[in-house]
């Protein structure tokens, strides 16, 4: 416990430390760069100028801009004055990869939002899923604070390496007090990154194209990485799919081990019945043959007010370990169809697999319906070899007598290193 918390503090320090540079005297307002004729060009000129601090100042109407692409920009502070709105121009984002702001191979950039609103026109983007609000690609030392992003044609924020160069990633990224909502694909996607802190952010109301999650950690190939990724005091709610999606199928055993932490986060009321993906608040996935190693930790998190279960997984036991520590899931499973925890064999038709790799340390699950607490689902042709490496303690509170663990097409005599204690307490106690 002490080592994990020390690691978290060190990670946050490493992320924040690069932004210790001060805002010095050389500053300029965007409005001084001929902004009336072309606000987009004014922003481009200002950022490329010798001024180290650029101020997007409040006008009597929103800034209406075309896609802005910054490449190889270094050592800039961008201050957005309180009350500023930045809108995507109607009809100006014709290419599927057009983003409101795209940062490509940039270094040492800080955006101080002061509550600024970034708005795109989601209804206009009927094709494609990559018109992001803010795209951060192959960047280092980026800090974003106090903004909202809504209506993008892709993700509110997208973080990756350079897609043309395998093994690249963004590093030392800090996003604080972001509200990302009503985006088409995800509130946030992380493809390849190291040392990322997402602090006090809200990801909600994603809707438009699959997956439709609050956040999606989804590398594109085995050379990508998810290293020291921390979500602290964040909220994931009312999204079309899961609040948290870990789609790690393209990482392999030879990939960098992952390290992801969710600390003091709230996950609630995610997944719409019309979304064709599996219904759950949290979803874990991994390569079924050669899975990535590492750890995912949920520490002092709350999952609540859900029609569905706490999490769904087809992750094999040989992959990364998931730990829930001091977590609560309450008022869940309201649809009376999915169990609180569902582990499903990754392939029904061929192969032989071990499900598992979970630790439950002081976890409370509370619900009123009659579904099992945990369900292990195998296949008719016995592709589920074992349930392996599952341990810890759960406290279950229900009105009804329910099956603690239900097995479908699987014999629990095949369990390997399973030591899970479930304490059942009537809900009226």
Automatic annotation (TrEMBL):
SMART domains in the cross-refs: PbH1 (SM00710)
Residue ranges occupied by any Right handed beta helix domain in the UniProt entry: 111-272
Coiled coil residues, start to end: none
Pfam family, any one: Beta_helix
Highest taxon of source: Bacteria
Name of the molecule in the record: Right-handed parallel beta-helix repeat-containing protein
Source organism (scientific name): Zobellia barbeyronii
